[in-house]
Write a structure and sequence with these properties.
Elements lengths: L4 H22 L10 H55 L6 H24 L1 E2 L2 E2 L7 E5 L10 E4 L3 E7 L6 E4 L2 E5 L10 E2 L1 H16 L8 E2 L3 E3 L2 E10 L2 E5 L2 E6 L9 E6 L20 H53 L3 H37 L1
Parallel strand pairs: 7-8
Antiparallel strand pairs: 1-2, 3-12, 4-5, 5-11, 6-7, 9-11, 10-11, 13-14
Helix pairs in contact: 1-6, 2-3, 2-5
């Protein structure tokens, strides 16, 4: 059977008209792979990257919320430590009686218990933030100079306290008591002691001060002449340690791809009383030296909290820039995807009108063609 060329043109015009309606109705230039195979592949890659970055921005905002929860809790811990510091300074004053220091100790005990409670209960989306990780480790506690004049050098697990060598006639305060150095001790004057006795007392005070907050006490070696300066003596301190949970560590997925460059690591130490070195903090002694040592322990604890807060603040600020970058990338990638996959409505309407006119004139021409064919048949039979 012979197919009319007009019928073929009509079908082609109908197909083009249908595609024009589909593009305008869906808003998409590519509705199937047949519309633009290469363009579809590129558009899908851009869409994947855009969706991934959008999810990364969402993750970054959620991560900021988590950091804000942890930082807010640490702010409360910092406020409590400031109060403990005030109480320690107050307890170190010689005007306090034993009962006064007992009352101060009661408040310190309550504050350290509250620090433990905050550490144990602070969580975000069922994840505990300040309790640490699953493992446990032994962490050195900073050595302290017990208020004795000298230089304290901190190392990883040891410390060195260096002071001027004592000689007859020198005066020194050890454990809150003033002593005079003599060639020999005087039973009638307990404050007159030899250099060796003074060194022994200093050794004891250094060990006591460096053991505050530690579960394993610090040890201090006997005084020895500084090999670099014979006019000085040194005490080697083996730092005490505290058993605590490992740090809590998590990775924040803020990018669209799987490589490690799209992850930000956040680590938060276990920040209970033991973790910051004030577990069992005691100020209720008769002389006030325990409170004096507590002042240094609280200072170290505040330093740990401040360092952790600084780390979290830096991570939060980094996430601000991550979010800004992600939003900018999403905007530009969306525009690129739109230029490939979305309909240009100005061009689409023009195409629709063209196809409608072609379809209309195709129908008219097909009718005219059929009328001409009918006339020829009639002429043949006539």
């Amino acid at each position: 059977m012979r197919i009319s060329p007009m019928s073929y043109i009509a079908r082609q015009n109908n197909r083009n008209l249908g595609r024009s309606f589909q593009k305008l109705a869906s808003g998409k230039r590519i509705n199937s792979a047949a519309d633009d195979a290469a363009g579809l592949a590129i558009a899908q890659k851009l869409l994947k990257q855009t969706n991934g970055l959008s999810a990364g921005v969402y993750n970054a905002r959620t991560s900021q919320n988590m950091i804000n929860v942890a930082e807010g809790a640490l702010g409360s811990v910092s406020d409590m430590l400031q109060r403990v510091n005030e109480l320690s300074v107050q307890a170190a004053n010689g005007t306090n009686s034993s009962s006064d220091r007992g009352a101060i100790q009661a408040e310190i005990d309550q504050l350290t218990q509250e620090i433990d409670r905050v550490s144990a209960t602070t969580k975000f989306n069922e994840t505990y933030l300040l309790k640490g990780g699953s493992g446990r480790s032994s962490v050195p506690v900073s050595a302290r100079d017990a208020g004795i004049e000298g230089t304290l050098t901190q190392n990883a697990t040891t410390a060195t306290f260096t002071m001027d060598a004592l000689k007859s006639g020198d005066k020194i305060k050890i454990g809150g008591t003033d002593y005079t150095i003599g060639d020999k001790e005087d039973e009638t004057n307990p404050n007159l002691i030899t250099a060796d006795t003074a060194y022994s007392k200093i050794q004891e005070q250094l060990a006591t001060a460096s053991s505050v907050g530690a579960t394993t006490a610090a040890t201090v070696s006997a005084a020895a002449v500084d090999p670099n300066d014979p006019s000085k003596v040194q005490f080697e301190i083996s730092k005490g340690s505290v058993d605590r949970s490992e740090s809590f560590s998590t990775s924040l997925q803020v990018g669209a791809e799987s490589d490690m460059a799209n992850k930000i690591s956040v680590n938060i130490d276990a920040l209970n009383a033991a973790g910051i070195g004030i577990k069992g903090l005691n100020v209720a002694d008769k002389t006030g030296m325990a409170a004096t040592n507590a002042i240094d322990a609280v200072a170290d604890a505040l330093s740990k909290i401040s360092a952790q807060r600084s780390s979290l603040g830096a991570a939060s600020n980094r996430l601000d820039h991550t979010i800004a970058y992600g939003n900018n990338a999403v905007y530009n990638l969306t525009a690129s995807h739109s230029r490939i996959a979305d309909t240009d409505y100005g061009k689409g309407v023009t195409e629709l009108k063209k196809n409608q006119l072609l379809n209309t004139y195709s129908i008219m021409m097909q009718r005219k063609y059929m009328e001409n064919q009918s006339g020829r048949v009639k002429q043949f039979f006539n």
